[in-house]
Amino acid sequence: MIEKSDTLRKVLFSGHDPAMLKVWQNAIIGIAGVGGLGTNIAVSLARAGIGKLILADFDVVTTANLNRQQFFLEQVGLPKVTAMQANLQRINPFCECISHNKKITPDNLADVFGDCDILMEAFDGAEQKQMLIETWQELYPDKPLIGASGLSGYGRNELIRTIKLDNIYLCGDGESELQQGISPIAPRVAIVANMQANLCLELLIRNNK
What we know:
Layout: H1 6-12, H2 18-25, E1 28-32, H3 36-48, E2 52-56, H4 80-91, E3 96-100, H5 109-113, E4 118-121, H6 126-139, E5 145-148, E6 161-165, E7 168-172, H7 186-207
Parallel strand pairs: 1-2, 1-4, 2-3, 4-5, 5-7
Antiparallel strand pairs: 6-7
Helix pairs in contact: 3-4, 3-7
């Protein structure tokens, strides 16, 4: 267990802009899905100094996840939210992490993510993505949701972009689809996830001016 102290906090975030850091430390961000996108988003936001992350996923870590997700071999078999919570505490012990080992549905979304300033969509399936976006828009039309669309394959950096639809933002190339039995490749997953995390930080600053 890492001992938290004011000295550690100051050193950990010594390179951050103090005004921006204050905004980020007061933010609550939800991450729906703790796989390739979700783990990379969580790591980046924790390193940036986000004060509270709420994670939700009902899956467990498998060996096949390790080619693109921020887990370790010794965590295979653990619930993803449990493993990710432990990893985030090793990165930034000042980031409060709440984990929900459950499947998100229209009935429980508000209970899990209702306090969040921004929701990060990091699901694999198209139906799950659509459910999350539609439910979030219905419940919280004024709160941003940052999702992903089109991240399979490799290369083609010039096609990756962000599309805005009201308070919904989609990062990716918007067109590439996953092939059955072929997992996304780590670089493109991380690029899109970090675009989502980067936009999250930007929106927090913009909405607090």
